[in-house]
Amino acid sequence: MNESASRRGFVKATGAAAATFMVMKPQTALGSQANSALSVGLIGTGNRGMYVSGIFAKNEFAKVTAICDIYPDRLAAGREKYSGAQEFNDFRKVLDSNVDAVLIATPAFLHAEHLEAAILAKKHIYCEKPMGVNVADCHRVLRACQKADPNRRISVGFQQRYGKDYKEAWRLVNSGEIGKLLAVRASWIGGGPGIKTGHPPEEEKIRNWFFYRDLSGDIIVEQDCHNIDVVNWFTGLYPAKVHGYGSRMTRREIGDILDNCALQYQYGSDLCFSYQATQFNRRNINGWDDVSETFVCEKGTVQTSRAAIRVFRPGQPVKETLVKYDITEDAVNQFIDGARTGKMENGAIWGAKSTLSAVMGRDAVYTGREYSWYDVLPDATVPGA
């Protein structure tokens, strides 16, 4: 079977299903009627956990009833926001509680362990990306997914897949309306996160986990995986091979991660994807950024971002659709609705594979050699090998 036929088959079988899920009876999904609120346990009350849980709390059909963190100050922040919620300093105690669902927002190096435990505890799961920080983590997630209860929903914080405007852009690129996909480029040109201070020296690496390779997976895995996941989704493929370069040009004050990289991926036998990312300025003081994906087709080009979707066609004005809200709301609200009404998915499978796509790019940069998909997923016993 040639590559284009294979890709069409993949898209037909799984692409349109981005918005279609296995449907269970609501009583099976939640253990009660569909009008019941979903009780949610927040594991990790750091900045991201507090933000995303706030979106959960705004939904009338969800309630944050448990919070968990290893640091007293972060637990206090959760207590202030979610008065009356059960408090834990061990994530396993959240899983042993009676919550229906968990939001996993711990540092990236803990995601595989926490996700696997939540699967075994048979909770509905919303897990922040990435699925891990190395090949072993991703394989652990894929193996855990084989044990997942089909009556429980597992969604991943690759929020573009749930954004309604991104879905429409996906439809256009895959409809044939603007012809064959010829090339892809994407970038995350911008600043990095702020550095946390005021904690004891022994807490440094965990408090500032993003800046350490072994805890975050580096910028390619922790941040840039968003762009890579979009490309995987839109093409219906995983990268065949990649090579790349990266360095530390301006980051001197903390950690050991890169602050810039450039990678060249190849999908199938001929589709090229060029990628670039920087974190030169924490506040983007140079006045320019570009966080987007661009899909060049025979009869037009589609550019996607969290700010706007733009469609370019020869001889026609640019069609621009502004995105005036955070599409994380779409991801969270679809998770809540799906868990309550029986629309199930196991997003950790494609989440782990998109994380592997980022890991292979990271490792290509580190080693200076080309990496292939079989370097990161060689074992036929792992799903998708």
CATH-assigned homologous superfamily of the largest domain: Dihydrodipicolinate Reductase, domain 2
- The whole-angstrom Rg is 20 Å
CATH topology of the largest domain: Dihydrodipicolinate Reductase, domain 2
User: Which structural class matches the secondary elements?
Assistant: alpha/beta
- Residues in helices, as a percent range: 25-40%
- Main CATH class of the largest domain: Alpha Beta
CATH architectural designation of the largest domain: 2-Layer Sandwich
Report the end-to-end length measured between terminal Cα atoms: 18 Å
Helix tally equals 15
Q: What is the overall shape?
A: globular
Please summarize the sheet with the most strands: 9 strands, mixed
Strand content: 15-25%
Number of strands: 17
How many domains? The number is: 2
